[in-house]
Design brief:
This protein is mainly β. It has 1 helix and 9 strands. It is 4% helix and 52% strand.
């Protein structure tokens, strides 16, 4: 099992001022294991934002999550996921995402092309997301699916699904 997330960050070379500090986040995932859906989450998000909804192509979204913060409701499973067969947290402590291209799909909807790095593998992923602003807060929400085997997480398995569905919600101020 594993999760990926939308990690949003600020580039020092960006001409945009960061939208603000991350106030809250929810990074969760779902994967089938032996026919049962397992829910999990990560809590260690490092993120800053340089996002312009008017000119999203000028935005930079970059962040990482600490793999050791994984929680699935079972401590033994969480420890197992940190081992070499899955995330190998000792050697690869963080999952990273960096935007390559962001484009508007109209009215608060966007899609981003990201380089996602898990373990020592980087793959390009497409992430559809929304951005809603209310008062002094902005909320990003996105959902996407990745194949865990593309990143060498868990190897081949007849009981563990290849597809992992990821849900992201990040609120900034």
């Amino acid at each position: 099992m594993f999760l990926v997330f939308l990690l949003i960050g600020f580039s020092a070379s960006s001409p945009y001022v960061p939208i603000g500090k991350v106030m809250s986040h929810r990074i969760t995932f779902k994967i089938k294991n032996a026919g049962i859906t397992v829910d999990g989450s990560f809590s260690d998000l490092k993120a800053e934002i340089s996002f312009d909804p008017i000119a999203p192509d000028k935005s930079v979204l970059r962040a990482s999550i600490g793999v050791a913060s994984i929680k699935t409701g079972k401590d033994m499973r969480d420890r197992d996921l940190q081992e070499r067969k899955y995330f190998y947290v000792e050697k690869y402590p963080r999952i990273k995402m960096v935007s390559k291209k962001i484009k508007s799909l109209g009215k608060d909807r966007f899609t981003g092309t990201f380089d996602l790095t898990i373990r020592d593998v980087t793959k390009e992923v497409e992430v559809p997301f929304t951005y809603m602003r209310k008062d002094n807060q902005g909320t990003f929400k996105g959902t996407f699916t990745v194949d865990r085997r593309d990143f060498g997480v868990g190897g081949n398995s007849i009981i563990l699904s290849d597809d992992v569905k990821i849900f992201i919600e990040v609120t900034t101020k």
